[in-house]
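For the sake of transparency, this paper describes our internal protein records without simplification. The record that follows is passed on verbatim for readers who wish to inspect the format:
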Amino acid sequence: MQKPVLFRQSLVMLVSLTCFLQQSELMAHFLFIRVGEHAEAGRAAEVFFSERAAAGDPRFVEKVAGTKLLMQQKPGEFVSLSTQRGADRLRAVLPSTGAVSITGLCEYGVLKREVPFLIRYYPKAISGSISELNEFKPNPDSDLEIMATAGPQSITLVLLDRGKPVPDAVFTTVDDDLVNEELKADGDGKVTWAPSKPGSYCVYTKVVRKEAGERNGQTFSEIREFPTLYFAWPLERPTGDREAGELFSQAIAKRARWRDFPGFTATIAGHYDDRPFSGTVEIEKSGAVKLKIDQEVAATWVEEQLHSIVIHRMDSPSSAAPILRFADQDTENPLGRLLTFVGGQSASSYRVKDGQLKVVNRRQGTENMTITVLENAETPEGKFLPRLYNVQYWDASSGALLRTESFENRWKRIGAFDLPVLNSVLISSAAGLAVRRFELTNLSHSEAK
């Protein structure tokens, strides 16, 4: 008769311990917003429930899924942002460029401790030029907000409680290595701080209100509120990183190129949306495509594909070394470090890994495009040719995935040139799956004669 009692006691202790551990972990977590640079699927604000603004805790995503976000791009003008829930974060689409301030509100719920209390989070993130950010206004609908006034070497923080500065407020900073620093505001509520090194920084503080109430059938005797702020330091980076430029240039140099290209001719056959076609193709030494096939409806797509293949292989004249910088501090990304052009207008960014260009991100009109290389073929000279890669397109306004194109390329060495012999594309979208493919045979160029 004792075993069931002991089992129930053990179960109660286990449940109690689990709840205690979860609550302990909860109190070590805060709600942070992170504004990134243009990357895969475009630029976004991501909401994390974690020790810092990265790698959120998936156990609590549902609890913070109701977080409301407002974006400020022009002083005093606030736009509501919709979020998409991921495995460990919330994501909201942002414009590709320009300074932004994102503020949020999340009423987490009631926790039972020594006293029952209601938790609220007021996350915020800023990104962009100092002159623009310093013109931004407080969110009038937010009870608590950390305002930041930046300079080139330091940043001044003020906690606003219902629009008024809080004297002697205590802020805690968190860097990429989870190292903390405590800052105390003066009698006017201001504290000026100079981050010690470049990186991502989170700041949080706490306000306790002795206000009782009820939420969802649970009573509480006080409210504990946590305003947070995220920013990447320095806020402005007008110059490039030498290492980033070298990584990009080395990856570009490793791509296989056609030097002194003589052009080639081939027989072509394939399928375009269930329509078979065949004919001939000539690629002139200038790179111009001359196509003759028996399916006019397929001609435009085939020409576009051949043109893309050719321009990526043609040897181009040397130009000035590109100026790039590292877009973040994430050195462990499986696809490689994120690089972005300094002063670029097309919101382009790249990832390089193992000396190869693995990802290309680009804004194209109303769409954001990402090319992800899955497999390259290596030439006898140690250069790389694409073999398998995906291209994804997202709506730049909503972030909705529009379509995915999965490519397979194959090559054949003829003389000193690796020429295309297969181009196969699977196109997945709301309209279904389309298959487009062509093969080139009987390839010949003047050097091989």
About this structure: The longest strand covers residues 401-414. The CA atoms of residues 55 and 305 lie 38 Å apart.
